[in-house]
């Protein structure tokens, strides 16, 4: 299964996530949903931001030209060994379900060594 398949099947396909991307810590875009217009500069900044959780909580992230606040960040849910999963929910979706769905995928990646 490709990274794009994982995004489309596990995140977008769940109905709990509107847009998603998997990024390396260097900002390389491993995969993203077709509707996620993530600029290269934003991906690089997002990948690097997760190395400094305190700063991330204070400044948030800029994605698709829009600022997103980071409400919660800890080493189990934000940082993995190799990659960052970014999920966005839009109006009509439940934030808790977006977080739960994304967390389940992160737990799976962690269990297989990512």
TrEMBL record:
Supply the source organism for this entry.
Caenorhabditis briggsae
Q: Which InterPro entries match?
A: PFN, PFN_euk, PFN_sf
- Its recorded name reads Profilin
Q: Which UniProt keywords apply?
A: Actin-binding, Cytoplasm, Cytoskeleton
Would the keyword Cytoplasm turn up in this protein's UniProt record?
yes
Name the protein family: Belongs to the profilin family.
SMART domains in the record: PROF
Assembly, per entry: Occurs in many kinds of cells as a complex with monomeric actin in a 1:1 ratio.
Extract the coiled-coil ranges from the record. none
Checking SUPFAM superfamilies in the record gives: Profilin (actin-binding protein)
* Entries under Gene3D superfamilies matching the protein: Dynein light chain 2a, cytoplasmic
Q: Where in the cell is it found?
A: Cytoplasm, Cytoskeleton
Naming one, the record's GO cellular component terms include: striated muscle dense body
Q: Please give a single GO biological process term from the UniProt record.
A: muscle thin filament assembly
> What Gene Ontology molecular function terms does this protein carry?
actin monomer binding
